[in-house]
Amino acid sequence: MTDHPHEPTLPPDELRTLFLFEALNDAQLARLSEAGRVERRLAGTRVYEEGDPATCFFVLLGGTVAMSRRVQGDEVEVSRTAQRGVYGGATQAYIAGEFSQLYMNTLTAVTEAEFFVVPAEVIATCVREWFPMAMHLLEGLFLGMRATQTIVGERERLLALGSLSAGLTHELNNPAAAAVRATSALRERVAGVRHKLAMIADGRLDGSQLHDLVELQEDAVKRSAAAPDLTPLARSDAEDAVADWLDEHDIVGGWDLAATLVAGGLDACWLDQIADAVGEENLESAVRWLTYTVDTELLMCEIDDAVNRISGLVAAAKQYSQLDRAPHQTVDVHDLLDATLTMMQGKIPAGVRTVKEYDRSLPPVPAFAAELNQVWTNLIDNALGAMDGTGTLTLGTRRKDGYLIVEVGDTGHGIPPEVRPRIFEPFFTTKPVGEGTGLGLDISYRIVVNKHHGDIRVDSRPGDTRFRVYLPVDQAAPRAAR
């Protein structure tokens, strides 16, 4: 321990006022009083640091402290409290020999704080001597729970990753397949353009005619880019008119060409310009050349759209995972919700309608963005499970009393009143055996309440269940340990 201003000890009567020691007898209190000492730490200083040898047991006497863990190099705050009597440090000293005795987290004094400090070996000896049966029960509970949480937590993460990966792969496959198909068709159209151009330019047309034809090509490209979306009935009528024009001019397979020409915004009046430019004897080659031109432009637009969709999905995946971003940042919750929906799109049944009721005027909020995405994932997943493939999923945002509220609603079977008080308990689940671990809502509760100092509430009845997440709008960023 480093030197800090301290008093020699804390009297037994004062120790008895701490909930951890209130049931000890006089001799036990005297032993702890003699072995311990009072220490003060300045605001912003570390009481102990994760990974260091766990040499002391700390009990908070006054002030505010924050507990944090290191996650892939980032300092993540897990709790903050000013409750007198809370403890930390060498809390597993009684399991000596079972695993390395290191501090499992970092404790930081947010304000000036005072602690009752007991050496780890004293706590270990006292627990083993005073509570032998309880020690064995705690030892088994601790080691068993740690193993269970490790196994179940890994399985939960693998299931979540597999589900999201399957959804993302499904969403990526559609535009990727479209791009492949369009690229294959484009290769054929380009070959057709070269062939027809050779026929047109083999000396049959003079320079003036070629010039007019090239101008028509440029005009066709412009019309294709600005082609309006027609209703099925209007498209059918337009294709009939163009096909009739092609048949009247003895162009073979006119009906097949008509669909492409209409999709490119061309009509019979425009086709008259081709006849005027090249004459009847070269009309069919010119029309087919221009049709290939329009088809090529449409295919390139299709490829561009597919690539943009892929790029959008990748961007959504980065937004969801918060790759290359600080763990705590000011975020727009609507971006997070949209990214989560995109990642889960493959998991949303065809019979479920998604409704967004966003208040886009809401300000950004300070948050751990990647972890909020985990909350949205858990709530949306539960909502989808409750609807059995049919219903309405509603995502809404609003502001009330200094909080930004995110609401996830579903039209499923609802949560029975008798189990509602237990839904945030770890390992509690209403799903059939093997289909749920019972950790989703527990994790969500800890992320929202402990890390963001917010709240999760639920209202439920058959046909209308709503989870509301309350996030402080003006919450200061959690203090990073120094």
UniProtKB/TrEMBL annotation:
The keyword Transferase applies. Keywords: Kinase, Transferase, Two-component regulatory system. Residues 303-475 form the Histidine kinase domain. Its EC number is 2.7.13.3. Residues 20-88 form the Cyclic nucleotide-binding domain. The keyword Zinc-finger does not apply. Pfam families: cNMP_binding (PF00027), HATPase_c (PF02518). GO terms for molecular function: protein histidine kinase activity. GO terms for biological process: phosphorelay signal transduction system. It catalyses: ATP + protein L-histidine = ADP + protein N-phospho-L-histidine. PANTHER family: HISTIDINE KINASE, SENSOR HISTIDINE KINASE. This is histidine kinase. It comes from Microbispora bryophytorum.
